[in-house]
Design brief:
Shape: globular
Strand order of the largest sheet: 1-2-3-5-4
Structural class: alpha+beta
Largest sheet: 5 strands, antiparallel
Order of helices and strands: EHHEEHEE
Distance between the termini: 48 Å
Helix content: 25-40%
Radius of gyration: 15 Å
Strand content: 25-35%
Number of helices: 3
C-alpha cells in the first residue's frame, strides 16, 4: 500500500489563534463557487459580515488560479478566524516556482486580454498581508497561497 502524507497546516509568518474550518473540493470549474460559499458561511457564523465580500472575492481568485494553472486533483482550503482577523489558506498539489510570491502583473500585460491577470492584484489590494508557502524542501510537493483580512480594514 502506498503511504499518503498530507502537508502540515500552512502558517503565515505569525501563527494565528482562532477557530479553524476546512474543506476539500475537487479542482474543477465549480471549485471557486463551492469555496466562496463555504468561506462566506464561516465568516457570517463567526460574526464577520463586513469581511464576507472581500473574502469571497479573494478566495475565488486564488482557487480559480489553482484550477487554471495547475493539474492538482483537489484544492484544500482552511479558514482560521478570530475576533480581529481571518486567514484563508488555499493548498494545491503542484508547487510551481514558489515559495516566493509571484509579482502581480498588470492586467493583460502579456496576454492582451483585459479579463486576465487581476487575481493577485485584487488579493494584494484587499488583504492586510498575503503570501505563499511551498512544502517538501528541495522537491516541493504542494504549495499554499494564503491571505489575511482584518476586521478593522487595511
Amino acid at each position: 500500500m502506498t503511504p499518503v502524507t498530507a502537508p502540515p497546516s500552512p502558517a503565515p509568518y505569525l501563527p494565528q489563534r482562532g477557530e479553524r474550518y476546512r474543506i476539500v473540493a475537487p479542482n474543477t470549474p465549480t471549485a471557486p463557487k463551492i469555496v466562496r460559499d463555504f468561506v462566506a458561511t464561516v465568516l457570517w457564523a463567526a460574526g464577520h459580515p463586513r469581511l464576507v465580500d472581500d473574502a469571497r472575492l479573494c478566495v475565488s481568485e486564488v482557487v480559480s488560479n489553482t484550477y487554471c494553472h495547475t493539474d492538482s486533483p483537489q484544492v484544500r482550503v482552511e479558514v482560521t478566524v478570530n475576533h480581529r482577523q481571518v486567514t484563508v489558506y488555499v493548498t494545491d498539489d503542484e508547487p510551481g516556482r514558489l515559495p516566493t510570491p509571484p509579482p502581480p502583473r498588470t492586467p493583460g500585460a502579456d496576454t492582451g486580454a483585459d479579463e486576465s491577470g487581476r487575481g493577485l492584484l485584487l488579493v494584494d489590494a484587499l488583504a492586510v498581508r498575503w503570501g505563499t508557502t511551498a512544502y517538501g524542501a528541495r522537491s516541493p510537493h504542494s504549495k499554499t497561497v494564503w491571505f489575511t483580512l482584518a476586521a478593522s480594514g487595511r
